[in-house]
Amino acid sequence: MSPARPRSSTIMTEPPTQVATPHQPLTPVTSPSRAELRGASLAGADLRDADLRFANLISADLRGAKLTGADLSGADLSGAKLHDTDLRGTTLVGLCGLHVKLIGANLDGVDLARAFLHMARLDGASLRDARLEWSCLMDANLTGAIAIGANLSACNLRFAKCAGADFSFATLEFCDLAAANLTRARLRHAHLMGANLDRAQLDGVDFTAARLGRTLFTGCPTLALADGLTSVKHLAPSVIDDETRRAPTALPPSFLAAGTLTTDV
Fold first, then answer.
1. Could you tell me the pTM of the whole model?
2. Could you read off the pLDDT of 227-265 as tens digits, one per residue?
3. Under a CB-based contact definition with an 8 Å cutoff, are residues 217 and 244 in contact?
């Protein structure tokens, strides 16, 4: 009979919650941290290369925090304050950010795929070449945001406030922009294949050289007030309803003819 294995005298306990200060970096840990930092004051903190996966950062103050290399995948930043914060080099895949405040934040090149940013504040934020595929930005505020070259494929932007935003060269394939306010937004060279623009506000939108195809324009009487419609590239027929086509301002005949648009919805 083999001898019984001795029991370990080590008592396993939960690691203490770490709170960073502006001069004391949060020590990276292995495996998803799930750090409990709800309401923490982390303004200006050094969080470079920190493991904050699935961390609870609800209502935390992260304004001016150093986050280069930090992994916040799956973290909950609902209501958190990140005004003017530089988030370049961070990982934010699957982030939960209900009501998160990213006003003026720098998110250039950041991966935000499948992030939940319902009613988030991104006005004036920089999102150049950012990845937002399958993200939810419903009711979000992107007024004046710069999203040049960003990937917003299959992104939910219903009711979003995007007035004056720059989506030039962005990919908005199958993006849901229903009832979004795109007044004076720039969509130059943007890819809008399969995008839903039902009842979107389109007055002053710059569609110069944008690519359309199976794009939905229904309930959009302001489409005729957009710029660059004669330079649009039609990759496939799109849909336009009578309300849009019979608006007080007529759509350019070349736009209708080139796109072989139909009134069938």
1. 0.85
2. 999 999 999 999 999 899 888 888 998 888 866 555 544
3. yes
**What is the per-residue pLDDT for 30?**
40
Give the separation between CA 92 and CA 23, rounded to whole angstroms.
24
CA geometry: angle at 124 spanning 118 and 126, to 5°? 90
Residues β-bridged to residue 151: 131, 171
Per residue in 72-121, pLDDT (tens digit) is 999 999 999 999 999 999 999 999 999 999 999 999 999 999 999 999 99
Contact by Cβ (8 Å): 107, 85 = no
Domains of the chain, CATH where assigned: 143-265 (2.160.20.80)
Instruction: Determine contact, residues 84/65, Cβ cutoff 8 Å.
Output: no
